[in-house]
Design brief:
The complex is a heterodimer of chains A (357) and B (330).
Chain A lengths: L6 E14 L2 E14 L3 E5 L6 H6 L9 E10 L2 E2 L6 H4 L7 E4 L3 H4 L6 H13 L3 H14 L5 H4 L9 H13 L5 E5 L7 H18 L2 E6 L2 H7 L2 E6 L2 E7 H6 L4 H8 L49 E2 L5 E2 L20 H9 L9
Chain B lengths: L1 H11 L3 E12 L7 E12 L3 E5 L6 H8 L7 E6 L2 E2 L6 H10 E4 L3 H4 L6 H12 L5 H14 L16 H13 L5 E5 L7 H18 L2 E6 L2 H7 L2 E6 L2 E7 H6 L4 H8 L6 H6 L18 E6 L2 E5 L1 H20 L1
Parallel strand pairs in B: 3-8, 3-9, 6-7, 7-8
Antiparallel strand pairs in B: 1-2, 1-4, 4-5, 9-10, 10-12, 11-12
The chains are: A alpha/beta (357), B alpha/beta (330).
């Protein structure tokens, strides 16, 4: 869209390992990502692809047995991978970079009032007085759409519905006006009807407060709705990234093809749904070649031997697959996701199954 | 044309396997007021079909599923299975028959399998409880067969649930139900806890088993995109009340109740261009008829029922007629 893009956070070759008993598991295998100021970037992938682990390194919230073993992560001239103690992270985690997690029930403290959980953040990071913090907290609660906020200030999480709780989590995350908001599957634990509302709320707040959003999700429908740019993760790496249109309408990596093909929205009744055979690679072992090769029906011989580099498709679109090598056989994406836009339009236009009058 | 014919065929060979009649389910809350989770639910499920119950959490869909399995008692109404009442007090023998013929597939396979037991035990548990084998050999043969039916290997028997991926674990959950040779399966959000790529595997498997064994499913879900693919008929439930029932194609073509319409509008579409202009309709019950007239399930078209007052019914009738005219013009 805009020509000049400011990089707000730049990750280079990030590698994350976990020590599990006496073995090392490599959860992130060299991921680079530039996050632009004000954009919404979505990371999609299956569970175990490393999408959550990767973003946890942004706020130093890896489990204690995990560590960043390589790479850098520049944010305002500071390398986040060098930060070790909680004290180092003060001023960044929760203040400049905030996270919303999947399940609001586990991110809120069940035995403290909603109000005290919001004011705590404001007092800590902004040094506000108690009464100032309360006023700000109530304002924030109103902003995220809690009706009757002043009265509900002293209630406990169990008195809130799931959707309302997630609104509170959003209020806490945004209380200090962070520059980056990480949304880790923010709607997976919520109902479909609530999901749409929460997504719209985050989008409205982003417009108003001008932060950068990083979405983590496995739901491509949500991605299509929220993202400007998309990165597809598999086996601890980003395997393809581009603008949201490029990823949906011109995907190049066979894994992106497979993910799109397995969407139930594209299923035809009476026929089998497409699915990805096999299981994701074990991250305990060294992965040779393309991690997706064993599950990839289009795999070439070289996919099993050598890791593909990123090939450039456009100025904004890159994919890590040997299929883009000039020497590779020309392959078209699977039939089911060709003319995707026309197919979805059929479904949502008048007479289609998902048409809404 | 062909669709019409198909529908007629279905209507002609209707064989009701399970019948829910005016069922209320309520819970004691400790206060004077009871929590009514399901209100006046009435529908039939035909043999060999997949009947989906769709609604958000708290709508009572799981409660109703559990009532069929005799886990939650009905506070009013009755449930008939193959013509016999299975709700309320029934003989011990009947109870055993129900437990055997109606099996359940749970949402989270990691939580529903005993993590300290081998797959062999997990799958055999029902056989042990009902002594459905003459000798060890027969039991093992049955376990092997059940595992093979769901696409696992007999040598997986000695493993533990944690050694499997999510999709495989759900297959074990299905094998556990299938080994009892059930007629009816209540599948409570069987794929919600699974990854996108694995969901498809489990749905395909359920369809395959249904065809092979002439099973009937009650498929409980919140995701209409999945339901469209798997269900023959759909009931939409909201706050304990069934608001609309229709065959799958009709429900998507002619959604009538405003709640159904809102649910449809929330299905995310994998297309950024379409998503940008897609309307999300929020259900607003205050727009319904506020006259206080009791709502009833009314048949607006053959096989298509909607919960409505007389006035609402007239509005809905107009809406269907408009939709029909529009679609005929396309």
């Amino acid at each position: 869209m805009e020509e000049e893009k400011n990089v707000i956070l730049s990750a280079k070759d990030v590698e994350v390992k976990f020590r599990v008993r006496d073995k090392y598991l490599t959860a992130i295998r060299g991921v680079s990502l530039d996050l632009y100021d004000g954009e919404t970037f979505a990371i999609v992938g299956e569970s175990g692809s490393g999408k959550s682990v990767f973003t946890k390194t942004f706020t130093g919230m890896l489990e204690t047995n995990g560590m960043v073993t390589n790479g850098s992560m520049m944010f305002h001239g500071q390398d986040l991978t060098k930060l070790k103690t909680d004290k180092d992270w003060e001023g960044i985690r929760g203040a400049k970079i905030s996270t919303i997690f999947q399940d609001p029930m586990t991110s809120l403290n069940p035995i403290r009032t909603i109000g005290s959980q919001i004011t705590e953040v404001i007092e800590k990071h902004q040094g506000a007085s108690k009464s100032e913090a309360k006023a700000q907290a109530i304002h924030m609660m109103e902003r995220v759409g809690i009706p009757n906020a002043a009265n509900r200030f002293d209630e406990y999480p169990f008195q809130y519905s799931g959707g309302m709780r997630q609104r509170i989590v959003i209020a806490i995350a945004l209380a200090c006006h962070p520059e980056i908001l990480i949304c880790d599957e923010p709607t997976t634990a919520l109902d479909v009807t609530i999901q749409a509302q929460i997504i719209a709320l985050i989008r409205d707040l982003q417009k108003e407060l001008q932060f950068t959003t990083l979405y983590i999700t496995h739901d491509l429908g949500v991605v299509a709705n929220v993202a400007n740019r998309v990165g597809v993760m598999y086996g601890g790496q980003i395997v393809e990234y581009g603008t949201v249109e490029e990823i949906f309408f011109d995907p190049r990596h066979p894994y992106t093809w497979a993910l799109l093909s397995s969407l139930p929205q594209l299923g035809v009744k009476g026929q089998d749904l497409y699915y990805i055979a096999g299981t994701p690679p074990s991250l305990y072992n060294e992965i040779k070649g393309d991690a997706f090769a064993p599950r990839n029906e289009h795999a070439l011989k070289i996919d099993f031997e050598q890791e593909p580099p990123f090939f450039q498709v456009s100025d904004t679109h890159f994919a890590k697959t040997w299929l883009l090598d000039p020497r590779a056989p020309k392959l078209e994406k699977p039939e089911i996701i060709r003319d995707l836009h026309a197919k979805i339009k059929m479904l949502t236009d008048e007479g289609g199954a998902f048409h809404v009058g | 044309m062909s669709v019409d014919n198909k529908e007629k065929d279905v209507i002609e060979e209707k064989d009701v396997i399970l019948s829910i009649r005016h069922v209320d389910i309520s819970f004691d809350t400790g206060h004077k007021k009871k929590l009514v989770a399901v209100k006046d639910a009435t529908f039939d499920i035909y043999r060999g079909e997949t009947f989906a119950l769709v609604g958000e959490s708290g709508s009572g869909k799981t409660t109703l599923g559990r009532a069929i399995l005799r886990i939650n008692p009905c506070s009013a109404g009755e449930i008939l299975f193959e013509g016999k009442r299975i709700s309320g007090r029934i003989s011990r023998e009947e109870d055993r028959n129900v437990v055997r013929s109606i099996q359940m597939i749970f949402q989270d396979p990691a939580a529903s399998l005993n993590e300290r037991a081998t797959i062999e035990y997990c799958v055999s548990e029902g056989l042990y409880n009902f002594h459905l084998y003459a000798n060890e050999q027969e039991r093992i043969a049955k376990v092997d067969k059940a595992l093979q039916d769901v696409g696992l290997l007999p040598e997986h028997k000695s493993r533990y649930p944690h050694e499997f991926s999510g999709g495989q674990r759900q297959r074990v959950g299905i094998a556990r139900a299938m080994i009892m040779d059930p007629k009816f399966i209540v599948a409570d959000e069987p794929i919600s806890a699974l990854d996108v790529s694995i969901r498809a595997q489990v749905l395909n498997l359920m369809n395959k088993l249904k065809a092979e064994k002439n099973l009937t499913y009650l498929f409980i879900a919140h995701d209409l995109s999945v339901v469209r693919f798997i269900a023959d008929r759909i009931a939409v439930i909201h706050l304990g009340e069934i608001v609309e029932i229709a065959d799958s194609e009709t429900l998507f073509k002619y959604p009538i109740h405003p709640y159904t319409v809102s649910l449809l509008s929330t299905v995310p579409m994998p297309d950024p261009v379409v998503e940008r202009t897609r309307k999300h309709i929020v259900y607003d019950p205050s727009k319904l008829d506020q006259s206080g007239e009791k709502r009833e399930m009314r048949e607006i078209r053959p096989g298509h029922f909607v919960l409505a007052t007389t006035k609402e019914y007239d509005d809905y009738e107009q809406r269907v007629a408009e939709l029909e005219a529009k679609l005929a013009a396309i």
